[in-house]
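Q: Structure tokens for this one, please.
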Amino acid sequence: MGYFKAEHPMLGKDKSFIIALLLSSLLATALAGNPQRQGNAELMPRNSNPDDAGLYNAFIDVPHGYAYFLGNYLWKLCITNGFPYAVCAPTNTGGSSYAQLDSAGGYAYISRPTTLYRYALGAGTNAVTSAGTLTVSGVNSIGEVGLDDSDPNPTNHNLYVFCRITGAATRVVKILLGTFTEGAYTSLNAGETNGGSGLVDHRHAYIYYATIAAGGTNTDIVKIKMTPGTNAPIRIASVNIGMASEPIGLGALDDVNGYAYYGTYGSTNYPSRIYKVKLGDGDNAPSLVGHIDLQQGRAQLSVGTLDPTNGFLYYGNDNTFPGGVHWFKLNGTNLPIEMGYVPFLSGPSNNPPDTTSAFNYTTNVDGLLPYGEVYLKSVVFDPIRGNIFFGQDSKPNQVVMVHVAQPDPFTLSGAKQPNGTFQMGFTNIKGGSFSVLTTTNLNLPPTNWTALGAITDSPLGQFQYTDFTATNGSPRFYRIRSP
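A: Here is the predicted structure, written as tokens:
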């Protein structure tokens, strides 16, 4: 005889599956839950005066259900009802590669040359509107921006702006958002210039800037401490990740487990890589865990995001035909593991060779792009609905939607082995994070069950675990937990 109870991980209160077996086996079926391309949303009609530009930046307001994509125009897209769609006319902002969203404050901040532009998001479906500018003094240009919104009062939020100065050290300047005025700054070390990816650890109040010395190729990850009030930001430390002649894409940060991930474009002599950096607790310095090489070689990894709940990293690519998303298992304290690739759709034209560029533009009324879904330049992740949105460099603008890998409901199969042990198994997403718990008393709360260990999949997607302690013939209950 046997007793079985299952709860969907997104619906069951304890996110678990339970199986009680009295030395019998249960047959099972399972559903696949690997990441899937859902389709694209083309932002029509194509604009003019100015023309559309590539969507090189994006930010997401998860609580209110909107994603924002920035080219020459700032698009406000609803993400709660299937494919994203524009809820109002786009706002001409003049373009930028760097922006930050203050959801609680109701503003977006966009950096261009030496000026910071503020935009009111607009309640509901109302349009985004200009709400002032601030020119940062004594600098030649400003780039990446990071937001500290840890204080529940939006008037106490601060912005941190990476500023370049000819012939002098690069600065990180604090902007007091309550008054929208310039505050104190800290100078970085010599060689810490040409900032690219800026990742914000909102949970612990640090920023991680990827910097490359002028004319150099090696990348430093510089840790900056965000500070309360009017206090200046503090440079904590840096780590060199040893890249050689391989441009870095925009990274992804896991503030739950304390790691950052950086993808590279690769080069003629080097494959594309994923570097993993341990952030360091508190004011401890970051450190390099190591890197993995992409299985297919060079793929120009351009923009990354991650899903810490399910344990996966996703990277879109550039100058790859068609485009697509690479996905990796975070793998705890170890290096990530490459799990697979989700290809996107090609267009009607013959694709050029990978690592080259061609204009993905059309003036046709149908908006059909010649090379389809390529040149991925920005990304946001909606953890509530489990969707990733990639912005393209195309005219007209286009956003590709991918549903992330998530554990599916499943049924365990299990059987007593000739040696008295008990073996169980199930099928689910490749690289999923699962563990086994057991008890002899089903009335005990889950916190009092005994953890037996993690379940690994070999081959990928096929999970199996053997309980070597189940040799005394006593009835046992098993729980599979994810994550």
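A few notes: The chain has two domains: 2-33+411-481, 36-403. The radius of gyration is 24 Å.
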